[in-house]
Each structure stands twice: as C-alpha cells, then as structure tokens.
Design a protein that fits this description.
CATH class of the largest domain: Mainly Alpha
Low-confidence stretches: 168-177
Number of strands: 6
Mean pLDDT: 77
Oligomer: single chain
Largest sheet: 2 strands, antiparallel
Shape: elongated
Length: about 180
C-alpha cells in the first residue's frame, strides 16, 4: 500500500454532540482509492480472521500432559509456543531467531530456551516420547519441528499434515545435529 501525500489536516467539533472530527485532504492519482480504517470499530466488533492466538488445551487430557512434564520440559516448551505457525504448529523463524517464515532448527531453539545442546537432546527425547513434540517429514527427512495440537494450537483447526505427524504408526529415527 503506497503512502499518500497529506495536503491539509484540520479538526472540527460537532456543536450538537461535541464529537471531534479530523478533516484531511489527500493527494491521489485518478485510479487510486483512499480507504479510511476505523480502529474503534475493530476493537468493538469481533473479527475472527484478524485475531491471532494460541490455544492451550484445558481439557483433562491436556492437564494430564502438562502435569506429566518436568520443570525443564515446561521451560523448554513455553518459549517455542510463540514461534508456532498458524494452524500448522510448525516452529518458524521471525527474522531475529532463524530465517523469517522458515522452519527453526534445533540450534535456533537453543537460543530461544537457553539450554545447552546436551540438555536439549535429553529434553527433546522425553518430549518426543510423550508425543508433545513431533516432526513434519518430507521425503524421509525431518523438515520441521511441530507441537502436538492436542497440547497447544495456534489457530482454530489443525491441518491434516499436523494430525498425521502425531498419529503415525512408525518411529521417526533421531537425527543428529
């Protein structure tokens, strides 16, 4: 969206209601359209597609999973929740940690969590066994780290590939860094 040049800006007050209005003159080309966004309406009215959130399950199954985690596992897992992609739970970079929009590596998670490589490997093995962390596998190789949607979900409905990552019959062999 291109910025338009603001030529004039003034305020006026409605004498009956006391409401203050801003009157602005904007320079635009003949084919361009100027749109006014009203932030008050967005805040007052619920807009489901614009709200990004992370759902942490609170049903008895999720509570059992959470209680089964050690303190180290919880402290490792919590920072990762902020890097989950929408409805895929794939851990992706934000530009500061990892490449923006690209899957995070385990080395990136070391920066996020503050754990060393050896401790991280122990925690990961335990989280994999408890089926809290899994992988998206493409062509027989691990291509991304995912969080089980039964534990936490960023979005409304998990993608099929995410469900398959945790319901598969076979073990994904452990990949060395």
């Amino acid at each position: 969206m291109a910025r338009k040049e603001l030529l004039n800006s003034a305020t006026e007050t409605d004498t009956e209601t006391g409401e203050v209005f801003t009157v602005e003159t904007v320079k635009r080309s003949s084919g361009q359209v100027v749109v006014v966004l009203d932030n008050k309406k967005k805040k007052e009215k619920y807009q489901p597609n614009e709200n990004k959130f992370i759902k942490i399950g609170t049903a008895s199954e999720q509570k059992k999973i959470m209680l089964s985690l050690s303190r180290r596992e919880r402290s490792f897992l919590y920072p990762l929740l902020f890097y989950m992609d929408w409805e895929t739970n794939l851990l992706v970079g934000d530009g500061d940690i990892g490449k923006k929009g690209k899957p995070l590596t385990w080395a990136n998670t070391d920066l996020l969590t503050g754990f060393d490589r050896h401790t991280r490997k122990l925690i990961i093995a335990s989280l994999e066994e408890k089926k809290v962390i899994g992988y998206i596998v493409v062509g027989g190789a691990k291509r991304g780290i995912v969080i089980n949607p039964k534990f936490a979900l960023r979005g409304k409905i998990p993608k099929e590939a995410l469900k398959e990552a945790f319901d598969c019959d076979y073990d994904v062999d452990y990949e060395e860094d």
